[in-house]
Amino acid sequence: MQEFEARAISPQHYELGECCRWDEARNELSWVDVLKGRFFRAVANPELSIVSSYQVEGFLSAVAPYRLRSDGWIIATNQSISRLFESGDVEELARPEARNSPSVRMNDGLCDPWGRFLVGSMALDVALGRGSFYRFEVGREPELLFSSVTVSNGVGFSPDARTMYYVDSGPGTVHAIAVDANGALGERNLFLYFDPREVLTPDGLCVDEDGCLWVAFWDGGEVRQFAPSGEQLSRVVLPVSRPTSCAIGGESGTTLFITTARDGLNERQISKEPDAGRVFSVDVGVRGLKLNAFGPGSGPRD
After folding, report:
1. SS (H, E, C) the chain
2. Contact predicate 132/121, CB 8 Å
3. Distance of alpha carbon 216 from alpha carbon 206, whole angstroms
4. Distance between CA 168 and CA 152 in Å, rounded?
């Protein structure tokens, strides 16, 4: 099994870094600080240099670009799905968790290969089964895909777009879900399980060009690579305990970027983890998949 060691590349610390994405169209990395309502864009050469940042009110948990990049981003904030313009203006498009406001908020999400926004939710107190998972496209109401979710988290697709991987951090599960040629979800099968009584919780994930999953483990201090068979192939070790999400890209195309958090750590823990909350990277020698964008015309057959 291969082992890598990631290093910090951001000068700043973030309270709850999340939704790490490499956008090859812009040639930049993006991520959010969920609890601060901030969205960041940066170039990596190899240290991160902020290109721009945006502020929204409340929580900001997921961001995905529109197919035409100048149209901005689709975002998940508080109980809503909204559009963020390059100007910084925000337009609410739907509010799928309005019925549960303010005790439930949106969480991680991304676009599927057909250009639809997939996003989940979670209770602020992480109550069992209070979250959901939705699919959204302009002109339609959000479609409920899963209910009784605890912490809806990482989502990713296989290179052929016929399998979707989905994390519910509450029960410590990663499911593999069959996807048909039109993007409809089918049978859900347990792919990985981590006992929630242990200090190791799957969080965000990404998929490489070989179809392998890279999963960030909250309180595990590492990112692990798994083959489509479920076999663990490698791990990336970090000097902090709470990696949250990951993406593969960069100038070489083979850099694994990792966001981390300091949320929930006490002063003693932070003193032992001075880099907690920074963005990390390491070259893992494999390329990632193209970032899916929001809007029609971005399906796998286009």
Report:
1. CEEEECEECCCCCCCEEEEEEEECCCCEEEEEEHHHCEEEEEEECCCEEEEEEEECCCCCCEEEEECCHHHCEEEEECCEEEEECCCCCEEEEECCCHHHCCCEEEEEEEECCCCCEEEEEEECCCCCCCEEEEEECCCCCCEEEEEEECEEEEEEECCCCCEEEEEECCCCEEEEEEECCCCCEEEEEEEEECCCCCCCEEEEEEEECCCCEEEEEECCCEEEEECCCCCEEEEEECCCCCEEEEEEECCCCCEEEEEEECCCCCHHHHHHCCCCCCCEEEECCCCECCCCCECCCCCCCC
2. yes
3. 9
4. 5
In the chain the domains, ranked by start, together with CATH numbers, are 2-283 (2.120.10.30)
Say which residues have a Cβ less than 8 Å from residue 140's Cβ, sequence separation at least 6: none
pLDDT 10s digits, 24-66: 999 999 999 999 999 999 999 999 999 999 999 999 999 999 9
Digit-coded pLDDT (tens) for 77-115: 999 999 999 999 999 999 999 999 999 999 999 999 999
